[in-house]
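hey team, just a heads up i'm posting the complex here instead of the shared drive bc the drive is being weird again. everything in one block, sequence lines first with there labels, then the predicted structure for the whole assembly after. its two chains so it's a bit long, scroll down
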Amino acid sequence: GAVVSQHPSRVICKSGTSVKIECRSLDFQATTMFWYRQFPKQSLMLMATSNEGSKATYEQGVEKDKFLINHASLTLSTLTVTSAHPEDSSFYICSAVPTSTGGTDTQYFGPGTRLTVL
Amino acid sequence: GDSVTQMEGPVTLSEEAFLTINCTYTATGYPSLFWYVQYPGEGLQLLLKATKADDKGSNKGFEATYRKETTSFHLEKGSVQVSDSAVYFCALSGSYIPTFGRGTSLIVHP
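-- predicted structure starts here --
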């Protein structure tokens, strides 16, 4: 089956530092990947849509200069939280859409990354 | 815009009880509907899906029927197990952006 990995699974950092989270589709190509943020006991909040070879599309209210997204290949998207602060602490989840399906119906989710900013 | 409304949890059941988690939606056009499951500390896994009206999605004993007339996609299972304890998300994909419900926590006691 389609597998999506995220690295790291858990990261603790000091306030003011930057953290990079990788999302990889292991056995399929993904033109489109999504980045979500999930607060405790809440739903997923879509942060941005990442398209290979082009700029990410950010949802309203998401700071593009703070959450840098790079989708450099068909199997890798990265989310960099720049100058992280405690309020950025959250569970970040990515999903990938197989290029072969052509649409957003079939998303495969990564296991998530728990970010804690001290 | 599109939206998904789920019943609030937690839903607490004894093993082998019948499960229903309600989900209703608003959307333009004809969206695909999904149920995802999230186990503690993990990402989301697709549980089942339905792509058009009257379709029934099923997997691992769970099932849900796409009801266009009531704009609903309720999740059911005839006999739950302790291992089913998780958070369940109803979602739709109509316009390009997927939309998720708030999630319903299910707790199953032995």
